[in-house]
Amino acid sequence: MRVRDADGRDPMASAGIVNSQSVKGADTVGRDSRGYDAGKKTNGRTRHIVTDTLGLLLVVMVTAASIQDRDGGRLVLNRAKMTMPSIVLVWADGGYAGKLLAFARHHLRVAVQILKRTDK
Fold first, then answer.
1. Alphabetically, which GO biological process terms does the record hold (predicted)?
2. In this structure, what are the phi and psi dihedrals at residue 15, rounded to the nearest 5 degrees?
3. Tens-of-pLDDT digits for all 120 residues of the chain?
4. In total, how many domains does the chain have?
């Protein structure tokens, strides 16, 4: 909040960005907490994050890589709304399209806007 205030912004963020990154699990990571992300061909875990528009972390959540973005998005956005109740808009990539939009709008009172890639 202090960083946002020092930048001349409201300390309570109203918009955010959600994304995820799958990372390979080390051999020491238990199989019960890993999963296979077929799209990224990764056996490991996925980091789901929500940042504010300055890029400051609001929420970080780690799941098995087999959890789809839209399902992980449901979990991480729910936590983001609890952490920063002022959030009303979140930008996401196409991996979050589908039922997550209606869930966020109806249950969290958050609009999720899907940004499509413009490059080929």
1. DNA transposition
2. -135, 155
3. 888 888 888 888 899 999 999 888 766 666 666 777 767 777 788 999 999 999 999 999 999 888 888 899 999 999 999 999 999 999 999 989 999 999 999 999 999 999 987 776
4. 1
Residue type at 88 in one-letter notation = V
Q: How many CB atoms lie within 10 A of CB 65?
A: 28
Are 83 and 33 in contact by the 8 Å Cβ rule? The answer is: no
Picking from 42, 75, 82, 45, the residue whose alpha carbon sits closest to that of residue 62 is 45
Do the domain assignments include residue 119?
no
CA 60 to CA 21: how far, in whole Å? 11
**Distance (Å, rounded) from C-alpha 19 to C-alpha 17?**
7
Give the CATH number for residue 69.
3.30.420.10
22 close to 40: Cβ distance less than 8 angstroms: yes
Angle subtended at Cα 22 by Cα 90 and Cα 48, rounded to the nearest 5 degrees? 30
Q: 120 lies in a domain? A: no
Please give the Cα distance from 53 to 55 (Å, whole number).
Answer: 5
